[in-house]
């Protein structure tokens, strides 16, 4: 079986070699042990936003296939990476060493053995002040609260009946999800969009607790700008869903279709 790990980067020279080496070691160990009967042949895609510090060169030396994406945006990088992904399972992480890439093989095992199509890391389970500032925690709380309020009707059927961390970018999912969702966001709102689309299309979604580490290097997130943009997206997306529900006479949007927008 083949898997694809997609990592967006922008000037992550300090951490990218560590992230890739950590993942490679964990993947090789898992193939010898917990995945021995069904080993994963991993391709690693680093989607680099035209870094100026040698991030792409370092990633290439570590065995990754590097795709330079000059169009700006976190979501744009992921959409470019997803279009190139060939694995039957897809995993994601950031290049700044905050996400536990060593946990990916175990999550793949759980995904393949369980009843879910999409697993999303819940950073809030073990979050600390070192890994997330008070400002960011407040912003996450507000966005999570709005999503739960606006989309509660659709969250009832997922594991736990809600989403605790709508902004997480640590995912493991079946490739078929990408064939049936429609992604439109080039910015940070892609994290919300992918989760919402996955649930709306009837895929089986669950959150898993993860340890979220301290970032290597200065943060790139602009709290107020990105937070407001994500909030506006959630509101606009909910209106799109409502319009589709009216067109379909109140039923859930059919699996494999999406409310408006371009891929």
Question: What does the model show?
Answer:
It is a single chain. The chain is an alpha/beta fold and 263 residues long. Helix 5 (134-150) packs parallel to helix 9 (223-247). It has a single domain, classed as Spore Coat Polysaccharide Biosynthesis Protein SpsA, Chain A (Alpha-Beta Complex). The longest helix is centred in the C-terminal third of the chain and has 25 residues, at 223-247. Strands 3-2-1-4-6-5-7 form a 7-stranded mixed β-sheet, with helices on both faces. It contains 9 helices and 7 strands, in the order βαβαβαβαβααβααβα. The two termini are 27 Å apart.
Chain-wise SSE layout:
Blueprint: E1 2-9, H1 16-32, E2 41-48, H2 55-61, E3 65-68, H3 74-84, E4 89-92, H4 104-113, E5 118-122, H5 134-150, H6 152-155, E6 171-174, H7 176-180, H8 190-200, E7 205-209, H9 223-247
Parallel strand pairs: 1-2, 1-4, 2-3, 5-7
Antiparallel strand pairs: 4-6, 5-6
Helix pairs in contact: 5-9
């Amino acid at each position: 079986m083949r898997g694809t790990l997609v990592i967006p980067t922008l000037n992550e020279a300090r951490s990218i070699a560590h992230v890739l080496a950590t993942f490679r070691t964990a993947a090789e160990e898992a193939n010898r042990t917990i995945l021995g009967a069904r080993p994963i042949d991993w391709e690693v895609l680093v989607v680099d936003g035209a870094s100026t510090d040698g991030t792409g060169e370092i990633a290439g030396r570590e065995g990754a296939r590097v795709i330079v994406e000059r169009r700006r945006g976190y979501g744009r990088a992921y959409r470019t990476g997803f279009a190139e992904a060939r694995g039957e399972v897809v995993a994601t992480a950031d290049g700044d060493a905050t996400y536990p890439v060593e946990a990916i093989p175990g999550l793949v095992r759980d995904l393949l053995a369980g009843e879910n199509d999409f697993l999303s890391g819940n950073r809030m389970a073990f979050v600390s002040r070192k890994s997330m500032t008070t400002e960011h925690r407040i912003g996450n709380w507000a966005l999570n609260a709005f999503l739960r309020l606006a989309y509660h009707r659709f969250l009832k059927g997922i594991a736990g009946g809600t989403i605790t961390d709508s902004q997480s970018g640590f995912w493991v999912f079946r490739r078929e999800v990408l064939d049936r969702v429609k992604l439109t966001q080039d910015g940070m709102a892609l994290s919300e969009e992918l989760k919402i689309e996955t649930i709306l299309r009837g895929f089986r979604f669950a959150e898993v607790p993860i340890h979220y580490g301290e970032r290597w290097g200065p943060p790139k997130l602009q709290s107020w700008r990105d937070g407001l943009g994500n909030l506006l997206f959630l509101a606009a997306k909910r209106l799109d869903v409502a319009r589709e529900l009216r067109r379909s006479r109140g039923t859930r949007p059919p699996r494999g279709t999406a409310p408006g927008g371009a891929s």
